Amino acid sequence: MTTTGRPSRARPDDGPPSPGGRASRGVVVAILVATVLAVVVLLPDLFDLDRVLPFAVTAALRPSESVIVAVVALLLLALRRRWWPVLVPVLAVAVVAGAVVVPRAIAGPAPPPGGTELTVLELNAFEGHADPRTIANLARSEHADLVVLPESGERMRSRIAALLPEYRTWTNVPPAAADVRGIVVASSPRAGDVTARRLDEGARYPWAELSGGILGPTRLVAVHLVSVVPEWIGYWPEELSKLQQWCAPGGDPSPAMIVGDFNATPDHSAFRAGTAGCTDAATATGGSLVPTWRSSFPWWFGAQIDHVLTRPGTDGTGPRARSTQVIAVPGSDHRALLTRLRL
Fold it and tell me: How high is the pLDDT of residue 18?
């Protein structure tokens, strides 16, 4: 027996997917991939990715990278308008990343008049290869009261002492130590009876503490934190956390300054956590986006990883930054940071 009826209709999912459906899914995937990549490159600290490589590096370069990504996205939008679904989210992430760093280019209120003027010159001397004559000329011409030179040992100290005989010089490592491990400090006659001692805080490189003389009740800690490289990245967040002993409110009642090469910027979550309670002199004076590293890069690209941090004492008095200036010095992969303060 045979039966008759209407022919069955094929269901929509019985045949191959339409080209339009494949294209739509491809666009969605492209949007998601591009947006996620932009976020993890420009805003890795939102997810603590900035504590590992390579995102620790991309976080440090956020000021430059956000501008580059925004410019490239705008150019592609002008040339390929049909790509807008992918490019607009990327541009939005770049704008957010840029908005995070812009306040650091705006100077805060100037410190009140009065108090003692203090000028600090800091430079990572790149394993002692920075030109000592340039350093000495800068110290003298800018009337630097204190000079702090990470990656310097006895070899650099002796050269600076010969070029600046009126300055007192000191290093926190023995003569046989490699320059990369040490910090050299020089103090001018105006600085008075400044004393220095080595600090062994569990960091990979020893730090130093200056006190007395022009500093009065303020303690200055000279630091060199480990680099953000594969063999050191595991120690880096821990070393940044050690800064809390000088920055944390309610800790030491005396005012404090922390000066040196931190190998970190305010775009790193570990830096923000370790320095909470301290004020970055460059941020306070609107100069935080001028890179001190790497000196071989153009001035618009790089990271300011050298800092002068300040923290008032429990009575509210302490060092306040007046101005900061970044200066190129031959022989170093860093630029010098010249900071003028009032105590």
Answer: 54
